Amino acid sequence: MKKNLLLTSFVFLTLFANAQKYKGLAMTPPMGWNSWNTFQTNISEDLVKQTADLMVAAGMKAAGYSYIVLDDGWMAMERDSITGDLVPDPKKFPHGMRAVVDYVHSKGLKFGLYNCAGTKTCAGYPGTRGYEYQDARLYASLGIDYLKFDWCSSDGLNAKESYTTMSNALKMAKRPIIFSLCEWGNNKPWAWAKEVGQLWRTTGDIANIFDGIKTFDTWHANGVMTIVDMQDSLRKYSGPDHWNDPDMLEVGNGMSVAEDRTHFSMWCMLAAPLMMGNDIRKMTNDTKAILTDKDVIAVDQDVAGVQAFKYTDKDSVQTWLKPLQNGDWAVCFLNRSSTPKSIQHDWKKNTVYDSLSAKEFNAVKNIYKLKDLWTKKESGTTDKIFQATVPPHDVVLLKLSK
């Protein structure tokens, strides 16, 4: 008996050590919609169905958005007293969660849920600590495709161990589920999470402000530019099937059109997951135009999977460069100031070699055509000095093609 117990323990530990995430689920950054930024815990079956319908009807699905992810607040305040399973809130989801999942799948979309590595979620609902394998089996039985896993109520836990345990649980549940680590970057997940999940948060929560910090009672959220400042040194950790995640999008949530355009442009330059956080039922034409711009999305979804880097930073104007497939480049001139800025860029005097991607930009040896991705205008070639005026808190985003 003792020998069998030791053998069982050895087999389990071997499985635990060797288990890895499902491979190949996110070869480009995941795209979808998450409920938290707008709705927090005020979610429901009707909201999910309306969002799914509009993602199809309004062209979001066609633009590449695949996932609907319910964030915190989908479950009841207590687990099932007999089975210990998580239970969907019966008032919010009167037909159960499987019916919601099936409806989303019927629209050709994928579905995700949220939980937490700690004993409780950030909103005080039941967390997963001690229930990792049971919860993973439940998610697989529901047919979900995506799990966002937060880090509240985690005092005393080791982040790498906790997230590895949940990753192994998902693998053993035998359903391919994207694993999104929402650990806020506190324990440098970029250094260890490549084999654990498909994406990991690099910062605390985002706020619907262009720059700075938004303070709440016991915590704070970061403005868009504040988050951008945290990303440049992390680019070497990101790539196909393992993405740096600077948090969900605030496009359509109260910033100006220019600021929304800049926000979206920079997330695409950073090869970030594009998880919409707005109320799709009420979005303006400007918001829809930004979120569904296929040329800009193509920068994010480029199969080379290289994150942009900051090339210059002068007089409040930053120049960001992103190598693309087939020797093309994306260039973003970002005006962080509150006044318009005139720029002049001599391509031939700015030869660049990116050691990470082993890509070279050399306008002396090659002529590149310029296309402004937002205006859709052809903007000449790299034979001439590029001149433009960048409005306040706005960008000029170019694709350079040989």
Structure write-up:
This protein is α/β, with parallel strands linked by helices and 402 residues long. The chain folds into 2 domains: 17-300, Aldolase class I (TIM Barrel, Alpha-Beta Barrel), CATH 3.20.20.70; 309-401, Golgi alpha-mannosidase II (Immunoglobulin-like, Sandwich), CATH 2.60.40.1180. Helices cover 27% and strands 22% of the residues. It is built from 11 helices and 20 strands. The strands form 5 sheets. The chain has an 8-stranded parallel β-sheet. Strands 11-12-13-20-17-18 form a 6-stranded antiparallel β-sheet, covered by helices on one side.
Number of helices: 11
> What about the largest sheet?
8 strands, parallel
Question: Which architecture name of the largest domain does CATH use?
Answer: Alpha-Beta Barrel
How many independent structural domains? Answer: 2
- N→C terminal distance: 70 Å
The CATH class of the largest domain is Alpha Beta
CATH-defined topology of the largest domain:
TIM Barrel
Task: Please give the share of residues in helix.
Answer: 25-40%
Spans with pLDDT under 50 lasting ≥5 residues? 1-17
Shape: globular
Rg calculated over all Cα atoms: 22 Å
Biggest sheet strand order reads: 9-6-5-4-3-2-1-10
> CATH-wise, what's the superfamily of the largest domain?
Aldolase class I
The percent range for strand residues is: 15-25%
Task: Let me know the number of strands.
Answer: 20
* Average of the residue pLDDT scores: 95
Structural class: alpha/beta
